Amino acid sequence: MGNMVKKENEATRTARFGFRATHRQEVLIRRAAEATRKSVTEFVLNSACSAAENALLEQKLFFADDESWQTFLDAMEKPAKFKPRLCELMRHRAPWEK
Asked: Cα dihedral sign for 19, 21, 27, 33?
């Protein structure tokens, strides 16, 4: 979805958002925009789009047509396959857990 943001930047912007922020929020956003060498608008839009993408990806409710749902159920009914390399990987702690 990251490409979607890039393509949107090339398109004409027609939507308008208006919102209020506290002084502290304004200072924080302006400093972050400056640090990333972006305009405040670009920084806010990119940040909001990233947050929106993550929120949508985290949704626990999925919609599927009958055929897709049946394919999913069939896959869930299949017995798990033994994957030796995956088992070996899971035996090791992640670097941040050491």
From this structure: negative
